[in-house]
Fold this sequence. Notes:
The protein is built from 15 helices and 13 strands. It is α+β, with helices and mostly antiparallel strands. The chain folds into 2 domains: about 1-45 and about 245-385, no CATH class; about 55-240, no CATH class. The mean pLDDT is about 80.
Amino acid sequence: MKAFYxxxxxxxxxxxxxxxxxxxxxxxxxxIAATGRMERSLEGQLTQTLExxxxxxxxxxxxxxxxxxxxxxIDEPTGNIGREExxxxxxxxxxxxxxxxxxGDNLHGQRILGCxxxxxxxxxxxxxxxxxxxxxxxxxxxxxxxxxxxxxxxATFHGGHGTVEDLGNHDDHDYKxxxxxxxxTPLWNTLILTTIQSVWTVHEDxxxxxxxxxxxxxxPMTRLMMPGQIQRxxxxxxxxxxxxxxxxxxWLNQGGQVIRAMSWLLTLIAALSLVLLLQSHIRxxxxxxxxxxxxxxxWGQIAGLVLWQNILLALAAITLTYLxxxxxxxxxxxxxxxxxxxxxxxxxxxKFDLPWLLLHLFLxxxxxxxxxxxxxxxxxxxxxxxx
Length: 387
């Protein structure tokens, strides 16, 4: 207890320098902790979003853009595909759970998605008031959009052309709210859902066109061969979401490795700073250590006085790290793209933290061994006389 008190007083005497070291160390720890959490959270989100979707048909373009636009609903679609040509492929016996999508409008930046009844069954619903759309110009909106826009069941509104920003209003086509829902998956809570016929009614020049078609493929061999067949024998693009998701996770992992490398560099800088801070403290308080030895204190007791300072700084850095994780989680809507969210269970699963917590506590102790050994080589009796 005396060692703890002495160490805390010593750090308080150098609180500015100690706080700076703790902050640098915490930034390194935060990078390590947040990167792992982000990767696990995004991997879980990819798995959840792509579940039941083995095939994506859309206009030719970037496969990554097609995935983001039609599965995550956070990018511009690559275009439209002809209904008649698409339906020829959708008669394949190995295709199931077929979902047809049509984009075109938004309400103050919130996308209005035309879809069919197969999409309703695909959404993990928490609550539903009213009904799903069954006729043209009917919509179901999320509770979040209802509160934001002041809408209720029976209310009407008109959309603006475009999926992100208004490129002209459709004042002569009013949508009517027939349902308000809440989904367990946050990306659905950012959308306004209507029938495909509604999109065709508003955009008369785009009738008989889909933005995309999603489907599950029951046969593993068909799942492997069909995208290539469609790609070669049609005017549109066939994407395997699983393969594209693996590529996207590869990019994310590469970015994560860069962040980890920078985080470990910050950690090493903090460890070096610990050594320098401790040596500076020993030089400054050399007479006190000499007095402890003169009064019968052992080198083990002095080691406790020295090492407790590093342990306290490590605990301060760990505390700051978790405060940073708390702030990042509750402010995620300000720094994450819409449609991407942090999984609360994954974010607060602390079992993955144990290895780096133990490693950094060991690093705190190890950084104090050098100054302690250096202290033993100093003639303390001379320091006591000089004082």
